[in-house]
Amino acid sequence: MGTVYNGNLGVSALTVSATYIFERVADKLGIKIEYIFLGSDAKDEKFDELDINGERIEYKFLPMTNYIKVSDIRAPRYRKVLDECDVVIDLGGGDSFTDIYGINRYMRVVFLQKIFPILKAKKFILMPQTIGPFDGFFTRVVANQLMKKIPKIYPRDRQSKDYLDKYIRKGEYHEIIDMAFTLPFKKAQKSENGLTRIGINVSGLLWNKGYTNIKIDYQELTKNMIEHFLSINTQVVLVGHVLTEPGSIEDDYTVNLELKKLYPSVEVAPKFSSPIEAKSFISGLDFFTGARMHACIAAYSSGVPVVPIAYSRKFNGMFLGTLDYSYLADAVNQGADEVLNNIKQGYENREKLLSKINSSKPLIDQKISFLIDDIAAYVSN
Fold first, then answer.
1. Helices 252-262 & 218-231 angle (0-180, nearest 10)
2. What angle, rounded to 10 degrees, do the helices at 336-348 and 218-231 form?
3. CA gap 131, 123 in Å, rounded
4. Quick check: 108 and 7 in contact, CB under 8 A?
5. Is the domain of 226 the same as that of 131?
6. For residue 98, what is the domain's CATH number?
7. Which of 86, 119, 213, 320 has its CA 20 to 30 Å from the CA of residue 346?
8. Is 369 within a domain?
């Protein structure tokens, strides 16, 4: 079976997690899958492979900007790729099925990426992701019309399911969970130097003001966090999770190096070569906070107490709604002092946070098992 992934990132935590899920689907059906990844984390076409739990999985990577261009809405190269595939899986970067990132990204990721699989009548799956918000009338109408034509949509949080029930087809959708909860990892050893290790993920996007829908001064909050944890004699570890070209507005690692100059005693985590390596590193920390949702999920799903710093509804829908995990700092609806205080309280109550995390594992396992079974039934028909 040939499968193409659509996503605004290429070999991301979501891509690896989706591949892991589809390998379990393949095992269930007794089939072999050939993968094509269509994403934006590289500029050149390439053949490569993933290492997932020691299994080498080959794939072909295609740069999205060469195949889906807003300037060429016919997308002939993309349509040719679709002809090679039996199933199309849309990841949408987890949170890109929305209009909050601007009309250009909306047209490419929401409209063009989805209209051609629909027109070609491909088996088409929207893997677990956030649906909306759609603030514009036009963008909402177009998105809703697209979704009415997509046979399989898996919302990853309660708010997204509520949207689908209200605007598309009530009662048809099952609330799943973010796929990154399935990402494999190797548990890291705890530090032996006696210091509590505090992981802080600093979002390059928020640091560089690439997203402005928050009330607080994010740079000031970050510095205040670092200074607070240094003052109570902990080891602060800056953990980059979105690693792009140096100097890019998205790159977390560049910001970490800037902060290292201001605070020489902090540790900067390595520039990870894969999402699995990043999650494995995070698993060895004692506490974690950050504004990259998949970094927070890596902490949560590897048993590390975490306080996510929410900058959009995707955090609230996932942690507050689906997981009933109230230990959240909300940078949209709270002031800077309240956000910082929530993080401090989470650290002080980290045993309580860990107990809540452990109690949610059966729910997560049940949702992932349903997803695998449901996909297997759909693609085999």
1. 50
2. 30
3. 20
4. no
5. no
6. 3.40.50
7. 213
8. no
